[in-house]
């Protein structure tokens, strides 16, 4: 925890010095405890899936047609993405999921995040002169955490699915064997990362088979990964973390200078956690708890915003308040959050409406608070890798899942003989105190690497329950995941349909740097002018995340599935 005293003193100074402190338009009251299961008795009778790739959406629909539920479909979608969208996620990476089980209304969070190997050593991420070594943090086996996705898929199947794991993996295995045509995004990702890929022979053989990236129209096969998925299907998690596959992973990592051991793999465990729940404007948002920072930040922002009637404000003032709430939530993100199994976090405080009310009082009606008045943290270059998909099945089960290998093509390191591309999630730790990671996020001791610890994530898979509508929302985007999901949630509450939520123009503030990143076209000139006059620094930026959304209208009982038009429309399907 950094500067707690300084922080409070500065807030107080800001309050006292400002006679113009913005009077809240509504009193701050504690919302009702939001813990009861959310039972919805009605059933949609049809299903909707939105993912980042049509093979993956179709794989999910195929498994539903075979009698699977949303969780079996999620396994099919995730495993197919591992084949067709390896730049974003895969069985060498991890995921975080918010699930809703229709039969009993249980909302649960599945933490299939990677962990640090026991031999993790911060010196490996420093150059001889003590400066951060960005290469070991982002490339090759030292950058890879112990994968969580295979255990997560096995867990989903065992505890929530209806079909045997191998049946849910069948579409991915078939596609990997029969072949598919890589899309433009995969070709671009391989092209962008080819110099790093060339450093590892198994990676070169897989991604640069003729010494260069694949070209459009070429048919691609992934027999090694097909075999690994098959063993996972036959043996469950042990098929990946032990035996033939586990040995190959450890041998490959160690031969290339990494430090994994068989014990690291054998001791990997899925964590089932209670999601974060926040009530806002008659909606209940169920979202990701630590080891993600996303849900805490979304809850803190919504709690701050709950003191205003945003619907009565013009665009500039509404946006100003949202930015100020983001600024304050990201300040806390950097200082307090980490793996809940390792660090004590003041979650009661961060999630309290009274804490939010205190923060709200420091927000001026029409003036930006310089982040420098709210002590300490840095910048972003999210890139667009990582992936989110949303599923609702005909029985009303819901899966909201964000998956990642971290940076584009993860570590670029494929473990020979397994087809598994390893993540570079170690960079999500605060590897070097007070030095930014690839998303410009700074961290504190709470997110320092330790053996077996999960690195803090921004992934924010969420489900929004309203009296008349349910929305399943999430996005990639590094640190901007949090603000994009927040804006998606607000757009949903404003009544936008799945397409409208996915297409919603975006903006982002993460405390430091003290600027608002803005999607071109997000603000009309008058709003942009007004925000600038209030003291906000606006900076246009692209690209933004890819949101895949499914909504359920409880009045008409209709599902709607939409993929992000920034990427490719039509990847959301209802059947
Ligand atoms: O878990 C995290 O927060 C990051 N590894 C996510 C990375 C990401 O979203 C990349 N870009 N779009």
Automatic annotation (TrEMBL):
BP term (GO), one: glutathione catabolic process
Domain of life: Bacteria
InterPro entries: GGT_bact, GGT_lsub, GGT_peptidase, GGT_ssub_C, Ntn_hydrolases_N
PTM notes: Cleaved by autocatalysis into a large and a small subunit.
Presence of the UniProt keyword Transferase in the record: yes
Amino-acid positions noted as binding L-glutamate in the UniProt annotation, renumbered to this chain: 113, 404-406, 428, 457-458, 478
GO molecular function: glutathione hydrolase activity; leukotriene C4 gamma-glutamyl transferase activity
E.C. no: 2.3.2.2, 3.4.19.13
Protein family: Belongs to the gamma-glutamyltransferase family.
Name used for this protein in its record: Glutathione hydrolase proenzyme
Organism: Dyella telluris
